[in-house]
Amino acid sequence: MFVRSTAAIVLASLLAAAALSAEPAGKKSRRKAPARTPALSFEAANDPATAPPLRRGSSGSAVLRAQVLLDRARFSPGEIDGSYGSNVWKTVAGFQKVRGLPATGNVDEATWKELNSGAETPALARYTIRPEDVAGPFHEIPEDMMAKASLPALSYSSPLELLAEKFHASPKLLTKLNPGKSFDKAGEEILVPNVHASPPGQKAAKVVVDKTASTVTAVDGNWFDFHERALERVAELPGVEGAAFAWGVPLTGNSWPGRFEVEGYTVAAGNENLVSVPIRAVTAGYFSLLGQTIEEGRDFRSADRVPPPNPATPNVPPDPSSFTRVAVVNRAFVEQYLGGAGAIGKKIWSPQGPNRVPMDIVGVVSDTRTVDLARASEPEVYVSLLQQQAFSKHLVVRTTESPTAIVGVVERELKTILPTVAVEYAATLEQIRDRSLASRTFAMQLLVGFAVVAVVLTLAGVYSVLSLTVTARRRELAIRTAVGADARRIMGLVLRSGLKLIAAGIVVGVAVSFALSRVLQAMLFEVGRADPLTLTAAAAAFAAVALLACALPALRAARVDPAEALKGE
User: Fold this and answer.
1) Between β-strands 381-384 and 275-282, what pairing exists: parallel, antiparallel or unpaired?
2) What is the mean pLDDT of the chain?
3) In this structure, are strands 394-399 and 381-384 parallel, antiparallel, or unpaired?
């Protein structure tokens, strides 16, 4: 499922707003004016009671409270001013989308309730101006760019501007909230948006800029936290039996090409002592979700992960030799490279990098056809996704609910954890299987179509030949009837002629199928090139249908009138 419609929705809304504002002068609009909320007040802004529906054009204390609560929830509405503009509309829509609400951009009762959940501290607070707030320096900023470039620094123009930015508000809003107050006097108590009531957020790993939607999103850098929380929350959803992340789901074509040195295995003389096998990265529980069994050893565990970085050097990855890297191999790997037994505890090494840190084999899993259903299982190595981080991956979910119903719920949970997570598409394993077989299915359907046409033509030929035979032997059949042959014998005579043609066709067809079986082998799954049951069933079905084609000429032969047929003799 692609989630790429946000930009289009925003653009359509902006165009609608532009069209509304561009109505010809003098034309009376039939649209209702947006509801206005009460004037700004300390009590109203701190009242969590249900507000009237808020939308573009609204203003007042309820809008002010909504802006402050959005700011605390890490959804910046821009400059807090008590007015419901386009920035607030975009922010509310983003908040609604992440919280699983209809992304209308308007504050309805459900959105207001969600905003106020857990908001125990007031939206407006009293603040005493400190000496450092008025210490300056303050300078008027000129409009000319060259004049700006000559300034030693772009300072605040006044204490009011400094205080407004400190509390994410507009200077005009602070002036409205504090009539008669002096903002350049230390010790003065003023009302300000209480935006610092929530603890500071985590350091962002990256910033996503969407020029189309005019939004900037800070992305949390805790890779492990997202994946662990996602698995935990998805597994708790009603109807979900289990969930796991994986890179290399069967029949998707995804895997890493890997080359390993295997403990106890030596390749032929003269070759590099490395084996080439595909690598797939999965989390704990993946094998049981796909019906694979752990035949020896154990599955991956949540503890099979890279240790957290040192707080003193957060950007330096941990030393690979400081933790145990683990791997699970399939039965085919054990049979081909480890003599069929004794895999647990063996080590494999990758030649990449200066440090050849080994991986310990901790489990053996049953084989599965991961590349192609027509190919036998091949040796594979599975590694812990928490030790080999993959940028893109599949979230595998086993559910008792309808897949289409669970997709939206799962996507909503993921976006609650990380709003910028991108869900490319959703598909069932049956759909993935059908896609992998699409080319073969099309080729087989084409062949079946040709075969049906060939059978129809053959049956038409059998019918035509027998009809012509009955017409040519009309005098003979009349004499046989005249001398005492009954209808059953006449029909048998014609059907035997047809059976000879059918038998000859079956013999030739079986011979040709043997000759072409090598070409068709790639399109067969669990069916041999010369499967006797398949050939017998096909021959029997063809014979039955061909006999039906012979029945009509045989009935015509049995109804020949001797007197009429011999009249001209």
Assistant:
1) parallel
2) 79
3) unpaired
128: exposed, middle or buried (Cβ count in 10 Å: 0-12, 13-18, 19+): exposed
Q: What angle do CA 329, 334, 337 make, to 5 degrees?
A: 110
pLDDT digits (tens, 9 = 90+) for 185-195: 999 999 999 88
How high is the pLDDT of residue 251?
Answer: 87
Bridge-partner residues for 189, per DSSP? 128
Tell me the three state secondary structure of residue 284.
coil
Mean pLDDT for the stretch of residues 347-365:
80
List 325's β-bridge partners, or say none: 359
pLDDT in tens, 82-120: 899 988 998 898 888 777 788 888 999 888 888 888 777
Q: What is the mean pLDDT of residues 491-513?
A: 81
| Domain assignments of the chain as residue spans, ordered by start | 6-21+34-193, 224-436, 438-565
Q: Which residue type sits at 307? A: P
According to the model, what pLDDT value does residue 311 have? 58
347-349 and 394-399 strand pairing: unpaired
Count of C-beta atoms within a 10 Å radius of residue 203: 10
User: What is the pairing mode between strands 359-365 and 325-330?
Assistant: parallel
Between CA 427 and CA 421 the distance in angstroms is: 18
Residue whose token pair is 């009249």: 567
CATH topology of domain 6-21+34-193: Muramoyl-pentapeptide Carboxypeptidase; domain 1 (1.10.101)
User: From the CB of residue 159, how many other CB atoms can be counted at a distance below 10 Å?
Assistant: 20
Nearest to 393 by CA among 223, 165, 220, 143: 223
DSSP 347-370: EEE---SSS---EEEEEEE-----
Instruction: Output the six-digit token pair for 57.
Output: 């054009």
- The answer to whether the Cα torsion of 117, 123, 128, 132 is positive or negative is positive
Q: What whole-number distance in Å separates Cα of residue 31 and Cα of residue 150?
A: 51
Q: Over the stretch 385-440, which tens digit does the pLDDT of each residue have?
A: 988 877 678 999 999 888 888 888 898 888 888 776 778 888 888 888 888 888 88
CB 158 within 8 A of CB 138: yes
What count of other Cβ atoms lies within 10 Å of the Cβ of residue 55?
18
Rounded alpha-carbon distances, angstroms, from residue 176 to 60, 88, 181: 11, 20, 10
Looking at the chain, the number of H-run helices and the number of E-run strands are 19, 13
Give the Å distances, CA to CA, from 453 to 200, 210, 450, 503.
73, 56, 5, 20
CB of 463 within 8 A of CB of 542?
A: no
For residues 59 and 82, is the Cβ–Cβ distance under 8 A? yes
